[in-house]
Amino acid sequence: MGYSDFTGQYKYSVDSKNRVNIPSRYRKLMTEEDVREVVISKGIDSNHIDVYPLPKWIALRDKITASMQLVNRVHRNFLRQFTQNAAHCTLDSQGRIMLTPALMEKAGIKSNGNVVIIGMIDFMEIWDPGELQKHEDNTPLTDSDFEKLEQLPLI
Amino acid sequence: MGYSDFTGQYKYSVDSKNRVNIPSRYRKLMTEEDVREVVISKGIDSNHIDVYPLPKWIALRDKITASMQLVNRVHRNFLRQFTQNAAHCTLDSQGRIMLTPALMEKAGIKSNGNVVIIGMIDFMEIWDPGELQKHEDNTPLTDSDFEKLEQLPLI
DNA sequence: TAGTTTTGTGGGAGATTGTGGGTAATCTTA
DNA sequence: TAAGATTACCCACAATCTCCCACAAAACTA
Q: CA B63, CA B43: separation in Å to the nearest integer?
């Protein structure tokens, strides 16, 4: 997926119709490859909303179903979590998506409130500003995290 | 990346639109290989701004995403830290980039202030002059640092 | 030294972006 | 089927950003 280079942090408002703007840079990257649809879902490991451009969602879905064993309880539970909160969204003519009440509830996002959108290279995260702050306070990257990273052939 | 030989130290001003000039020598090196875009990000271990020419950024990004597991909390937290402070900048027709308020804040750089740009071979660092001085006073390279360096196949 | 090019800095006008709201089409539900 | 709710599409507009032009100082050339 060549278009994928979502980076940075953006602040936007949620209007009374639960619409949220998608950063114009991300929109450009997606329309370059004719992607007008995304799938939003509950964040895997914390209280936020994940936004996957459709091709990324399909890749994820296929990866999961390929390695999934339906007789495995944990696998089944994961699949249920992964899909039951997922919703397809088409960008409107102004480049916005409409969040679902269920996902907003889980992420602590309110109508007429604010959100922070974070680029995660090939997908995005939508956070309630307070939840994000809380999450960062609780899980800072420590020196020992960096030491671990140094051991990887990362940088 | 054959163009990469950023060396030296340059002083520039930040204008009221948060624009900073890129040393003309660096610009020449980059345009020789058609690089007109850079990614700026928070310095990994101190308060300054890193500037990666796009190819260097892509190499970094790919290294990180290749070994990343999105279901792993620590991985995801690291990726979030890595990307949320990163911003793509296109050099304007005068060879300047525009810094983001968030990064300026973290680096202690002010509108209408000054910066020091340091070449780091294949990327650059942008410092507030005061922060740079402070950093150099506080963290001289000690003998034991040199011993550690000797253990690496660095030089 | 005098002329020419390059470099760093500033600012203005047009284009883009984020946001709000109205209305018609669509979907639900009784 | 009809009424109500929901959604999609359109228009509007202010704030912001991007692109372009301008110019003085410095560096280079002859």
A: 18
B125 within 8 A of B48, measured Cβ to Cβ:
yes
- Estimate in Å the CA B127 to C1' D30 gap, whole number: 40
Task: With CB atoms and an 8 Å threshold, state whether B73 touches A139.
Answer: yes
Q: Considering CB atoms only, which of A139, A153, A154 is closest to B77?
A: A139
What pLDDT does B45 receive?
76
Say what the pLDDT of residue A72 is.
Answer: 86
Burial readout A16-29 (b: 16 or more C-beta within 10 A, e: otherwise): eebbbbbbebbbeb
Spell out the SS3 assignment of chain B. Answer: CCCCCECCEEEEEECCCCEEECCHHHHHHHHCCCCCEEEEEECCCCCCEEEEEHHHHHHHHHHHHHCCCCCCHHHHHHHHHHHHCCEEEECCCCCEEECCHHHHHHHCCCCCCEEEEEECECCEEEECHHHHHHHHHHCCCCHHHHHHHHHCCCC
Angle, helices A143-151/B73-84, rounded to nearest 10 degrees: 100
Residue with CA nearest C1' of nucleotide C20: A15
DSSP state of A44: S
What is the reported pTM? 0.90
Give the 3-state secondary structure of residue A155.
Answer: coil
Which among A48, A67, A44, A45 has a CA at the least distance from the CA of A9? A48
Nearest to B63 among A5, A8, A154 (CB): A154
Q: In this predicted model, what pLDDT tens digit does every residue of B64-90 receive, in sequence order?
A: 888 888 888 888 998 998 899 999 999
